Amino acid sequence: MVGILSLLLLTGCPYGSEVPLDKPFVRIDKRLLGEWVNTADKEYLYRVSPGDEYTYTILKIKVNGHGHKDDTLTYNAYLTNLDSILFFTVYAPDTVKKSYLFYKYEMAPDGRKVALTPVTDNIDEKFDSSKDLRAFFQKYMHLSFFFDKDAEVYIKKE
Q: What's this model's pTM, rounded to 2 decimal places?
């Protein structure tokens, strides 16, 4: 995202895949729980809660000019660790054919800011298995083209 699919959380449009990078197996980062706003677009509030011990439920809530909350969308997300790089995988849970979106995840040490850098949507490859997708990420994720230049930065609400 992503909505996410027009992007969930996110304002950029990352690479999407019909197969996930991996199954959820990294425990949730509890610092991510709570309410967040995008520093570049304060039109939405993102409420992150645990789905289970490995997944997040994210509500994307449109906030109108009067502080009222309208139009809520729901997404699921989880972290994957590939060679010490954390990837945030986001998808809409209620779709028949899922599309998984990928971001590099970087949490500030104080837990008050998170940067999500989209995997570039310039990747044309399609994958039939998570194993093949994971191998592609591991081969290219250290190259400069792999991620968009700008991260989406979110600040935790007080």
A: 0.87
- Beta strands 100-107 and 55-63, pairing class: unpaired
The CA–CA distances, whole Å, from 119 to 33, 73, 95 equal: 23, 22, 22
Q: What's the rounded Cα separation, in Å, for the pair 98 and 72?
A: 19
Whose tokens are 């970087």? That residue is: 106
Rounded Cα distance between 40 and 56, Å, is: 23
Contact between 57 and 51 under an 8 Å Cβ cutoff? The reply is: yes
Given this model, what pLDDT does residue 5 score? Answer: 37
pLDDT tens sequence across 33-78? 999 999 998 899 999 999 999 999 999 999 876 655 667 899 999 9
Q: How many CB atoms lie within 10 A of CB 143?
A: 8
**Which residues are paired to 37 by β-bridges?**
45, 155
Nearest 5°: CA angle at 143, between 140 and 148? 100
Q: How far apart are CA 82 and CA 65, in angstroms?
A: 41
CB 147 within 8 A of CB 119: yes
